[in-house]
Structure formats: structure tokens, C-alpha cells
Amino acid sequence: MSHAEDGILDGARPPAESLSLFGHDAALGFLGRAYKSGKSHHAILIEGPEGIGKATLAFRFANHVLAYPDPQSAPEAVSPPDPASVHFRQVASGASHNLIHLTRPFDEKAGRFKSAITIDEVRRAGRFFAQTSGSDNWRIVIVDTADDLNRNAANAILKMLEEPPRRAMFLVLSHAPGKLLPTIRSRCLPLPLRPLSDPDLERALKGLGFEINPQSRDALFTQAGGSVSEALKLVNYGGLDILNAFEKVLSQAPGGQQRQDLIKLADALSAKGGETIFTFFTDNLIRRIESDARSAALNGDIAGAARLSELSSALKERINTSVAYNLDRKQIVMNAVESYLFG
């Protein structure tokens, strides 16, 4: 399967295949101790920003559980899986009878991922439990991510969390747990993960074979915010160049040159096959607007904060619509930046 079809960024490794995990020793220690005690919660909500290793941690813990199905005989330390083990090979290839990975399905006809995890995907988990109901093995469902569940799918997952089958474990990932159904959050034990420190981020990137340019190191780490996926977008997808071009547009006086540079930026972001960098840019633009709104509120500019908050909400809706209906990305970028610049 190509990177385009498995949702993995260029330069990254699929979490199910990864043997390396950085920065989350405390979380792994907690999971290992809880599992060995026999009191591990049936549903763990693994929270944190995108790209910091939530899925990799989930797969590592799942491999640990499958390797040691009896908690009392399991070591407390959750070590990297043995790549030669049957469990690891089956999980990595997606052929495990004891683990199912729920994520947004790829739409072969449209050539892109669907915008949500659908009820049909969650029904796969129902069939998975039905087919393995007579087994004494653990059955693990990784929901990646719960943020992507549509309403029907979320309600179906909730029912499973409320009435979990015997020896079932749910590892539920979320970038924004505050947006999940409160009933889903209440059925899970939260396990928050923090963004990677600069040393851990550097180790992670070097583990992927990257040599970091000393001249761009500070800018890379500042913009990545402790996220490996953000760092890969900055390095492999031209993200640093895109952000520099955007800053240039912002610094210019209104007029012909600013508009010409904005058109160049919009052209770069709407190029064929540029969905990743388009999403990267629009996410950064929305975060910037939200940050400006918070600053305005703290400075007592309530009207300005309200305007920026409304702009952020409107842009999110517009961008989601453009992605869902494959609308002209160039015009979306032009309108979004001009709205930010000129109100």
C-alpha cells in the first residue's frame, strides 16, 4: 500500500510497524503497572496533539498485552515489541485476529480518505468481537482517532464502551478530547501525552533518518511544536517555505506586490497532490487567528476578539466544505488570507 493510501506522511513509519517511541516513558510505565496489577481500565483515552506518538504508544501497549495475555505474568516494563514475534508481524500487517484498527477509510473511487470514521467501520469492530467471542485472548480495538467518528459511529462506539465484551480493551486516541461526546470521555480513563521536548523530537527525527540543518533547527522546532508529523510537513512538504512566504505576505503593505505574492502562495498550496500542505497551511492559519483572538481578549479588545473568533469558525466551515466537495483550493486560500488581512 502506498503512503497516499495508508495515510502515512513521507518519511514516517506506520505506527503499527514502529519499534521506536520517544518522550512517553511515564505513560508506558503507568500502562505497564496498571496491566500487571490486573486493574487496567477497559478503555484508555490517549490524549494529545497530533503527531506526538499516540498511535505508536497504543500499538506498543497492544503488543505487550498480546505477548503477555496473563497480566500477572507480564513484566511491568512495556518494552519495544520483538519484530520476530508472531503477534508483532500479524499486528504490523493488519492480519491480527486479536486487534482491529479503526480509522478513516480510503475512498478508492474518490482517491482520498473519507472525512470521517463511519458506522460501517465501527460495525467491523462488532463483527470482530462476535467472531472471537469464544476466545480467551484479549481483543483490542484502537480507535484512531475518536475525533473522526461521525455521530452514528460515535454512538456505536459508546454502546461498546458501556457494555464491553469480556477481555476487550479499547485504546481511544484523540487530538481534541474536549470535543468528544462527554459520555465517551466518561467511559474512558484519560491518559494525556505532552508534546515532545526538543531533544526527544530530534531523536525521533534522527531515528527516521533525518539530519537536521543547524541553520533551520530553531525555526523547525518552534514551528513543529513537539510534533513529529508537523516536523515532517515542515521538512518534506515545504512547510517552512510556505510559512515564510505567508509571513512575507503579512509584512507587505496592501497593494499589487502583496497580491502577487499571495497568488504565488495560493498557487503553491493548490498544486495537484498538495492536500497535505494545504491542510498544514489552513490549520496553521486557523491556529494563528485563534491565538490572535485570545490575545485581543486578554488586552481588553472584546470586539476584535469576537471578530477573530467568528472568522476562525467561518474559515473552518468553509475549509471543511471545500475538502468534502473538492472545491478550488486556490480560491479558498485567497479568500481566507484576505479575510484575515482585511477583515
Describe this structure in words.
The protein is an alpha/beta fold and 343 residues long. It folds into 2 domains: 3-192, Rossmann fold (3-Layer(aba) Sandwich); 237-342. The chain contains 15 helices and 7 strands. Helix 12 (256-269) crosses helix 15 (329-342). It is globular and about 70 Å long. Mean pLDDT is 92; it is low at 1-5.
Secondary-structure element sequence? HHEHHEEEHEHEHEHHHHHHHH
Overall spatial form: globular
Strand content: 5-15%
What name goes with the CATH superfamily of the largest domain? P-loop containing nucleotide triphosphate hydrolases
Individual helix count: 15
CATH class of the largest domain: Alpha Beta
Termini separation comes to: 44 Å
Mean pLDDT: 92
Overall SS class: alpha/beta
Strand order of the largest sheet: 2-5-6-1-7
The residue ranges in which pLDDT falls below 50 over 5 or more consecutive positions are 1-5
Q: What is the gyration radius calculated from CA atoms?
A: 22 Å
Tell me the CATH architecture of the largest domain. 3-Layer(aba) Sandwich
What is the CATH fold-level name of the largest domain? Rossmann fold
Binned, the helix content reads: 40-55%
How many strands in all? 7
Question: How does the major sheet shape up?
Answer: 5 strands, parallel
Number of self-contained structural domains? 2
What topology does this entry show?
Blueprint: H1 3-6, H2 25-37, E1 43-47, H3 54-67, H4 86-93, E2 99-102, E3 106-107, E4 112-113, H5 119-131, E5 139-143, H6 151-162, E6 168-174, H7 182-186, E7 189-192, H8 198-207, H9 217-224, H10 228-236, H11 239-251, H12 256-269, H13 275-298, H14 302-324, H15 329-342
Parallel strand pairs: 1-6, 1-7, 2-5, 5-6
Antiparallel strand pairs: 3-4
Helix pairs in contact: 2-3, 5-6, 9-10, 11-12, 12-15, 13-14, 13-15, 14-15
